[in-house]
Write a structure and sequence with these properties.
The complex is a heterodimer. Chain A is mainly α. Chain A is built from 12 helices and no strands. Chain A has one domain (44-293): MetI-like (MetI-like fold). Classes of the chains: A mainly alpha, B mainly alpha.
C-alpha cells in the first residue's frame, strides 16, 4: 500500500522521532554552551546587571595560581593511578580471559561493584578509612608496626593527592579491566596457537601478541581516564574540599567554587570555556590516534 | 584442561599452566575481590555502630550491638524516607523517558534515510565531547528564570538527551533485519504502528541494559542535583547524605546508614541483571 500518504509518512516520521531528543539537546546542551561563551566575556555575578569586559576574565584566569594548580593536581593524580590501573587491569583481564580460570562471573562482578555504587558512599567510606586520627588504615598500619606516627592521609598536600588517586583507582580498576577484557577477547586464539607451535614462551607471546593488539583499548582507557581525572569533582569535594592548601583542587571543583560559592558567573564561565576547549582537544587527539591505527 | 579445538594438532596451547601457578592466580583474584568488597563491608559495619565505635583503636570489627536505631533516626527524624522516594521516582521516570526518546531517535538514525541525517548525527557525536560541567552556570541561570530551582524534575532534564543512549539504541536498531519492517509495511502497517508493534518488542534486551545504566547513573547523580536541589523534601539520596555533614559534629554513623540505603538497591540490580549489564556497558563504551 505504497500510496502518497505513506510516502509522506516515511519522509516526515524520522524528524518526528528525533525531535524530542534534539529539542532537549538544543535547549539544555547547545544553548547553554553558547550562553557560557557569552557570560565569560562579562563580569556578571548573577544578581546585578552584567557588563561586558572583553577578555579580562581570561587574562585573570591566565594569572590565577589556583587554575594552573588545578591542572597540575589533576596531572599528578593522573600519573599516580593510571599506569598502575592499566597495568593491573591488563594482568587481571588476562587472568579472567584464561580458559582455566573458574569463578569468572563472580570476579567480574566483585571488581565492578566499586564503580557501580554511588561516589558519595565511596567517598565517605574513604573518609572513615583514611582519617588521620583513628581511621582504619592508620590503625591497622600502626598495629602492624609498619608506621609509628599516623600518616596524614587527608591532611597533607601530597598524601591527600595519593588518597584521591587511591580512591579513583579503587573505583575504576574494575571498569577498565572489563574494557581491557573485551579487547583481549577480540584477539583470535589462533595467534597464540601459532606462536606456541613456533616455540614462543607465554611471557614472550604476551609481549609480542597481546600488548600490541590491546594498544587500541589501552589508548581508549587512557583517554577516558584523562577526561575523568580532570573532571573529578565529588571525590575531592567530599574527601578534602580541595584542600589541604588547594592540593586536590581540580578544574571542575574550581569551576564549582567560583560558580556557587563565590558567584563569579563571568569568571566561572571563562573557566568552563577553557575546560571545554581542553577536553575537546583531548577527544580530538584520541580520534586522530584511533584513526591512525586503522 | 582444555584441548585444542582442531583435532589432529597436539594439544599444547590452552593447557592449564600447572596446578601451582593457576592456584596462585586464583588466589590473587580472590584477594583482589576481597579488597574491592571490603570497603562495602566496612560501610555496612559502620552503619550499625554507635558513632563512638567508628574511630577506635583497636578497630571494632563487629559492633557491640546492631544499631538499627541509626536507620530509624534517618527515616524518622531526618526525612530519608522522602529522600529515598525522591530518588526512586526521579530515576524511574527519567529512565522511562530517556528510553523512549533514545529508542525513537536511535531507530530513526538507524533505519530511515532523511535529509540532514549526517549533520544531525555529527551533533550527537559532538555532544559526547561536551563535558556536562561546562553548562552548569548557564543552566543554573536558565533554571532560575524557569523556576526550576529546587524542583526535582529539573534535575533530569539536561540529561534526558543522552548521546550515549542514542548511540546505543542506534547500534541496536541497526542490527535488526530490514525484512521485518518491509513485511509489516506490505501488510499495510502505518509507520507509527510499525514502531510500536514490530520494533519495540525486539528492543527488550536493549531496554534492559540501557535502562539499568541510565537508572543507576541518575540514582548516583550528585553534582547537578547538589546545585539545583535546596530543601530537604526535594533532595535525592546522594545530596541528602552529603547534607548530613556538619562542621562541628558529623554524624558518620548516619552517613554510613544513608549510604547503605543508597547502595543496597544497586547491589540487588547487579545480582539480578549481571549479564545484560556488563554486555550493555561494554558495547556502549566501545562503540560510543
Amino acid at each position: 500500500m505504497k500510496n502518497g500518504f505513506w510516502r509522506w509518512q516515511i519522509r516526515c516520521i524520522p524528524y518526528l522521532y528525533i525531535f524530542p531528543y534534539f529539542l532537549l539537546f538544543f535547549v539544555f546542551s547547545l544553548y547553554p554552551i553558547l550562553y557560557s561563551f557569552d557570560i565569560s566575556f562579562t563580569d556578571w555575578n548573577g544578581a546585578r546587571a552584567k557588563s561586558y569586559i572583553g577578555l579580562e576574565n581570561y587574562v585573570a584566569l591566565f594569572h590565577d595560581r589556583t587554575f594552573w594548580l588545578s591542572l597540575w593536581n589533576s596531572a599528578v593524580i593522573f600519573l599516580m593511578y593510571v599506569p598502575i590501573m592499566l597495568f593491573l587491569g591488563l594482568i587481571f583481564a588476562s587472568l579472567l580471559n584464561a580458559g582455566w580460570m573458574i569463578g569468572k562471573g563472580f570476579f567480574r562482578m566483585a571488581l565492578f561493584v566499586p564503580n557501580f555504587v554511588s561516589v558519595i558512599a565511596v567517598s565517605f567510606i574513604f573518609v572513615l578509612l583514611f582519617s588521620t586520627q583513628d581511621g582504619l588504615v592508620n590503625t591497622l598500619l600502626r598495629n602492624l608496626g609498619w608506621i609509628r606516627t599516623p600518616i596524614p592521609w587527608l591532611d597533607s598536600p601530597w598524601w591527600a593527592r595519593i588518597t584521591v588517586a587511591l580512591m579513583v583507582l579503587y573505583r575504576w580498576l574494575g571498569y577498565n579491566m572489563l574494557l581491557l577484557l573485551t579487547g583481549l577477547q577480540s584477539i583470535p586464539k589462533d595467534l597464540y596457537e601459532a606462536a606456541c607451535v613456533d616455540g614462543a614462551t607465554k611471557v614472550k607471546s604476551f609481549f609480542l601478541i597481546t600488548v600490541p593488539l590491546v594498544k587500541r583499548m589501552l589508548l581508549f582507557c587512557t583517554v577516558l581516564s584523562t577526561i575523568g581525572t580532570f573532571s573529578l569533582f565529588t571525590e575531592p569535594y567530599v574527601l578534602t574540599k580541595g584542600g589541604p592548601l588547594d592540593s586536590t583542587v581540580t578544574p571542575v571543583l574550581m569551576l564549582y567554587n567560583e560558580s556557587f560559592q563565590n558567584f563569579n558567573f563571568g569568571y566561572a564561565s571563562s573557566i568552563a570555556v577553557c575546560f571545554f576547549i581542553l577536553m575537546m582537544a583531548v577527544s580530538l587527539i584520541q580520534m586522530r590516534l584511533m584513526d591512525d591505527r586503522k | 584442561m582444555e584441548t585444542s579445538q582442531s583435532l589432529g594438532k597436539p594439544a599444547r596451547y590452552g593447557r592449564s599452566p600447572g596446578k601451582w601457578a593457576s592456584a596462585l592466580a586464583f588466589l590473587l583474584m580472590l584477594v583482589l575481590s576481597a579488597l574491592m568488597m571490603f570497603p562495602l563491608f566496612w560501610l555496612l559495619d559502620s552503619s550499625l555502630k554507635d558513632i563512638s565505635e567508628i574511630f577506635v583503636n583497636p578497630p571494632r570489627w563487629i559492633p557491640k550491638q546492631l544499631h538499627w536505631s541509626n536507620y530509624r533516626e534517618l527515616i524518622g527524624e531526618r526525612g530519608f524516607g522522602i529522600v529515598t522516594w525522591n530518588s526512586l521516582l526521579l530515576s524511574s521516570v527519567y529512565t522511562a523517558a530517556a528510553l523512549v526518546f533514545c529508542s525513537l531517535g536511535g531507530f530513526a538514525f538507524a533505519k530511515y534515510k532523511f535529509y540532514g541525517k549526517r549533520i544531525l548525527f555529527v551533533f550527537v557525536l559532538a555532544s559526547l565531547m561536551i563535558p556536562p560541567e561546562t553548562t552548569m552556570v548557564p543552566l543554573f541561570v536558565i533554571y532560575k528564570k524557569l523556576h526550576l530551582i529546587d524542583n526535582i524534575w529539573g534535575v533530569a532534564l539536561p540529561e534526558l538527551a543522552s548521546a550515549f543512549g542514542i548511540f546505543f539504541m542506534r547500534q541496536y536498531c541497526s542490527a535488526l533485519p530490514d525484512e521485518i519492517m518491509e513485511a509489516a509495511r506490505i501488510d499495510g502497517c502505518s509507520e507509527f504502528a510499525l514502531f510500536r508493534k514490530v520494533i519495540l518488542p525486539n528492543l527488550k534486551s536493549a531496554f534492559a541494559a540501557l535502562g539499568i545504566i541510565l537508572f543507576v547513573k541518575q540514582w548516583n547523580n550528585f553534582m547537578w542535583p547538589t546545585v539545583v536541589l535546596r530543601s530537604w523534601e526535594h533532595m535525592t539520596l546522594p545530596v541528602a547524605i552529603k547534607a548530613l555533614e556538619d562542621s562541628n559534629n558529623t554524624p558518620y554513623h548516619l552517613i554510613m546508614a544513608g549510604s547503605v540505603i543508597s547502595v543496597v538497591p544497586l547491589l540487588l540490580i547487579v545480582l539480578l541483571f549481571q549479564k545484560s549489564l556488563i554486555s550493555g556497558l561494554i558495547e556502549g563504551a566501545v562503540k560510543g
